[in-house]
Amino acid sequence: MRALINFFLDLDLRYGWIESSLFAAKAVGKGPYHARTLRRWTILYMRHSVLPVCNIQGGLSLMDDEDFSQQIHLHLLQVGKSRPNGDVCAQDIVDFMKTPAMKTHLGKKAGISLRTAQRWMERMGWRYGEAKKGMYKDGHERPEVVEYREKFCERWAGYSKRMATFNNEGERVSDPTGIDFANGLYPLIHVTHDESTFYANDRRRKRWNHSESTVPQPKGEGQSIMVSDFLTREWGRLEHDGEEARTIFKAGKNRDGYFTNDDLVEQVDRAIDIFEAKTHGFARALFTFDNATTHRKRSVDGLSALKMRKSPALKEGPRMRDGTKPNGEKQSFYYPDDHKEMPGWFKGMEQILRERDLWRDGLRSQCGKDFKCAEGATDCCCRRILYCQPDFANQKSHLEELIEARGHICDFYPKFHCELNFIEQYWGAAKLRYRATPRTSSIDEMERNMIDCLDSVPILQIRRYANRSSRFIDAYRKGLDGAQAAWAARKYHGHRTLPADILRELREAKLA
User: Fold this and answer.
1) Which of 159, 222, 298, 344 satisfies CB 3.0 to 4.6 Å to 201 for a cystine?
2) What's the CA gap between 497 and 469, in Å, rounded?
């Protein structure tokens, strides 16, 4: 192209446009076809400042251009967003490549074939088939869930200052800040928890099979083993000197029973012992759990308006701890043991409210059979009034009380936000390995295979999972919703946090 222009502009030679292109082509051993190509490339550059795509190595593709592939990917996201079912297809890329803007950009008159578009989609990470499970959509953006998520992300911003960070190569890139041992500000180590179940018949279903040698497949999922474990970005699984926090449980009526809150509390107590032995008391743990009912359960003596009746009664079993009146005085919910008529009896909600000066005539025990009060109501029935009292509303779960009593921090992820808990990806990696193991004939052999697969996930992979969850938290903290956060986490896959101008990028991508 440079030779063509030099020949054409040389006043001594006085070559015409076509003649200049022929001489330029001949100089590199080419003929008239290459001369025409040089003329087209030069005109395209002068009009639109677009250079031709170099493909002299034979293996290059338009998709090697990151800006171009990102443009295609954003177009597919916009198409999916505009359709009720969110579907996209390879034909959408074919049609997009036929637009005048793309033809001008690429300098091509013809578009691409459907098969090329399919290859491009595969290269960008799109797969044709049944959609994989990702984030929960139902409930993900409910107002109360979003409100809790915003508060969680703000708390996380405070936690993260005291935590070390790692890049996607597994290297430690920053140390905790704001440490003050004298005032109890120790380095924080994030310890995340979750449970998962492995099934005996969970095996690869897609493989090459000969039509005449089909092997019969067992029915159902087979026997199951549940795993409850803790994961950290510093060490991977939480273990020390042969002691490990992992619990293996064979759930079922005629097996080990069912994994309850008491089982989890016992496991957490053991996990804290291991953590403290590993850190020698020079760090504090941030334990995080799913926002499940079994995890948020209160201790047996915890304050709960749901357990109360309106009238006095003699109750057996553990007694509820004392409450606190609005004026700050302690309040027992039981009559004294030397009471003449009701020694040791539960007072009932009516008497409890009278002692708090909150009783009024005509109050029902609760609204309806299912305790469904009108939205925003705070004093419609006895149970709702107590439910809204500060001492009842601020009653912590059994897990929180245990962890905080031992000097550590407990928090719960927002509901429907499994993408924030990086142990979820750890389960997926372990199950991918498990599905490739030979089919087992006994539960003991299955358990050995399962443990080998869980232990084989490398620490580098775990740290990358943790970084991905951190990107989602940072995205939500910057005001993105679920779909926008997923887009941002995918684009900035090598980072722990997102750029400050992410909202501007979303607007440019027409996703905001």
Assistant:
1) 222
2) 10
> Is the predicted pLDDT of residue 316 greater than 90, yes or no?
no
Long-range contacts of 136-143 (CB under 8 A, 24+ apart): 136/416, 136/417, 136/418, 137/482, 138/416, 139/415, 139/416, 140/416, 140/417, 140/482, 141/481, 141/482
Q: What is the predicted pLDDT for the residue at 408? A: 97
Which region, left, alpha or beta, applies to residue 214 given φ > 0 means left and ψ of -120 to 50 means alpha?
Answer: beta
CA atoms within 13 A on the CB side of 355: 18
pLDDT at 49: 84
Angle at the Cα of 252 (from 249 to 258), degrees rounded to 5? 60
∠ CA 460-461-466, rounded to 5°: 95
Measured at the alpha carbon of residue 464, what is the angle toward residues 462 and 470, in degrees to the nearest 5? 105
Asked whether 176 and 283 are in contact (CB, 8 A), the reply is: no
What is the three-class DSSP state of 215? Answer: coil
Q: Write out the two tokens for 6.
A: 């030099």
Residue for token digits 């809790």?
148
Global model pTM greater than 0.85: no
Residue 56 has pLDDT above 60, yes or no: no
Q: Domain-by-domain residue ranges, the chain? A: 2-48, 62-123, 143-203+222-297+400-508, 299-395
pLDDT tens-digit profile of 268-289?
A: 999 999 999 999 999 999 999 9
Three-state secondary-structure class, residue 226: strand
**Of all helices (H) and strands (E), which one includes residue 107?**
none
User: β-pairing, 330-331 with 323-324?
Assistant: antiparallel
Q: Work out the angle between the directed axes of helices 459-477 and 482-491 (0-180°, nearest 10).
A: 130
User: In this predicted structure, which of 213-222, 370-379, 416-425 has the lowest mean pLDDT?
Assistant: 213-222
The backbone torsions φ and ψ at residue 239, rounded to the nearest 5 degrees and listed phi first, read: -155, 160
359-363, 474-478, 496-500: range with highest mean pLDDT: 359-363
Q: Are 301 and 318 a contacting pair, CB within 8 Å? A: yes
- CB-count burial class (<10 Å; 0-12, 13-18, 19+) for 430: buried
CB within 8 Å of 470: residues ≥ 6 apart: 160, 496, 497
What does the DSSP assignment read for 111-131? ---HHHHHHHHHHTT---SSP
Paired tokens of 503: 């909202």
Question: Look-up: residue for tokens 């620490």?
Answer: 459
Q: Could you write out the DSSP letters of every residue in 349-405?
A: HHHHHHHTT---TT-BSSSTTTT-PPTT-SSSBHHHHHHTSHHHHTPPPHHHHHHHH
